[in-house]
Amino acid sequence: ELAPTNRVAIFHEHGGPDKISIQQLDTTKQSELNAGEVLVRVLYTGVCHSDLHALQGDWPAPTKLPLIGGHEGAGIVVALGPGSQEYVQVGDRVGIKWIADACLNCEWCRLTHEINCAQYKPSGYAVDGTFQQYVRHTARYLTKIPDALPLDQAAPILCAGVTIYRALKEAHLQPGNWVVIPGSGGGLGHLGVQYARNAGLRVIGIDTGDDKKKMSLELGCEVFVDFKSTSDVPSAIKEATGGAGAHAAVVAAATSAAYEQALDYLRPRGTLVIVGMPNSILPVSIFKTVLFTHRIVGSAVGNRQDAVEALEIAATGRVKVQFTLKGLSDLPDVFQAMIDGKIAGRVVLDVDK
Ligand code: 8ID
Ligand code: ZN
Q: For ligand 1, is residue 227 a contact (CB within 6 Å)?
C-alpha cells in the first residue's frame, strides 16, 4: 500500500514561488515508523497564507530547510507504528494541523495551550508538512474527520477554520454583538464570517474587490467595506454600528493597516484579536487604550478540542469552505495568486495532480 515514491512540493531556500519544485522522493524512510507514529496518505491539502510566509522566510523564527510545507492536510491512515492503535486505526479519515505534536506534559499542555509548549512542532515549518502524499505523524495529535464531511472540505478547516473559530472565542462576544472581520474574503476570513453567524453575531466584512465582496455578503456579512475604495474605513464601520463602533475586530488580514484601522473603530471595552501575521509593529496609543478600556489579544490556531468542534460545525453544513480545487503542481501559481490578492476563499490541492 506504500508506493515506492512520494510526490512532494519542496523548497531548498526562501524566496518567491519559483523556489518550489515538485519532486518524487523515495518512501523507504517513511515506512520506518517510530512508537506512537502512523503513516498518513494525504489526499487533499489547503494552502494557507502561513505557507507563503514560510516560503518567503517572513517570520523571525527559522523554518527547517529544505522544507515540504503545508499544514491543512486531510487523508487516510495507512500504517500504524507500535502503540498508535489506541488513537487511530488503518483506514481512519484524519486531519493534520499546524501543531504536528507537543509534549502534552508541561504546564501549557496540561492547560490545553499546546501552542505555548516549548517543544511543540509546527507542520510545514519545523517538520515537513502536507504538500506531499505521505506524512509520518504522531497518532495522538491527528484529528478524526467526521464521516459527513468530505476530505476536500475538511482540509481548510484544519488550520483556517479552527484558527478563526478559536479567535472568535477569544473575543468573548455575546449573540447580537458586532464583529468586524478584516480579510473576510480570504481563507480564514470567509470561514470566520460563517462561524460568527453560527454564534449569533452580527458581522461586518472588510476586504477588496467584487469577488470577495460577493462572497462576504453571501456568507453572512450584513455590511461590507472595501478597504481600497473607502477613504475612511473606521468611520464607515462606526456608521454601520450606529455610531458606537464594533464590539470586536478579529483581524484575518496579513497587513498592519488592517490593525491600525481596527483600533479606531472598536467601541469602548472592545477587543482586538490579532490573528493575521504580517511581520510588523502595531503602534498602540497607551492613552486611548486606557481611555476606551480596550483589550488586545493574540490568538494562535486552536487546541485539539477546538479542532473537533470546528470540524463538527462544518459537518452540519453550517460552515462551508468556498474553495477552488487545484493540483500540487499548481502550488507556485497559487502562491503567486495569493501574493496578488486574487484568491477568494481557499485553494485546496489534490496532492496526486
Ligand atoms: O494562528 C494564527 N494566528 C494563524 C493561523 C493561520 C493563518 C494566522 N494565520 C495568518 C496567516 O499567516 C496570514 O498572515 O492569517 C493571515 C491570513 O491568512 P489567510 O486567510 O490564509 O490569508 P488570505 O487568504 O490571503 O486572506 C487575507 C485577506 O486579507 C485581505 C486580502 O484581500 C485577503 O482576502 N486584506 C489585505 I492583504 N489587506 C487588508 C485590509 N487592510 C485585507 N482585508 C482588510 N483590510
Ligand atoms: Zn494556516
A: yes
Per DSSP, the three-state class of 67 is strand
- All domains of the chain, ordered by start, with CATH? 5-144+322-350 (3.90.180.10), 162-298 (3.40.50.720)
Query: What would the DSSP string read from start to end of 198-247?
Result: HTT-EEEEEE-SHHHHHHHHHHT-SEEEETTT-S-HHHHHHHHTTTS-EE
If one counts every other C-beta atom within 10 angstroms of the C-beta of residue 312, the result is 15
**Helix, strand, coil tally for the chain in percent (to 5):** 35, 25, 40
Starting from the CA of residue 187, give the closest ligand: 1
Give the closest residue to 173 by CA, choosing from 154, 196, 145, 155. 196
Ligand nearest to the CA of 123: 2
Which ipTM did the prediction report?
A: 0.99
| Chain segment 190-210, per-residue pLDDT in tens | 999 999 999 999 999 999 999
Residue of minimum CA distance from atom 30 in ligand 1? 183
pLDDT tens, residue by residue, 61-104: 999 999 999 999 999 999 999 999 999 999 999 999 999 999 99
341 lines ligand 1 (CB under 6 A): yes
Ligand 2 centre distance from Cα of residue 290 (Å): 33
What would the mean pLDDT of 248-254 be, rounded to a whole number?
97
Round to whole Å and give the CA distance between 6 and 30: 9
Ligand 1 near 163 CB (within 6 A): yes
CA of 156 to the centre of ligand 2 (A): 8
Cβ–ligand 1 distance for 71 under 6 Å, the answer no
Whole-angstrom distance, CA of residue 106 vs CA of residue 114: 9
In order of 52, 84, 108, 123, the CA distances from 117 in angstroms are 24, 22, 6, 15
Residue 1 pLDDT? 66
Q: Is residue 32 very low, low, confident or very high in pLDDT (cuts 50, 70, 90)?
A: confident
Which atom, in ligand 1's list, is nearest to the CA of 206? Answer: 44
Pocket test for ligand 1, best of 277, 321, 322, 323 (most atoms within 8 A of CB): 277
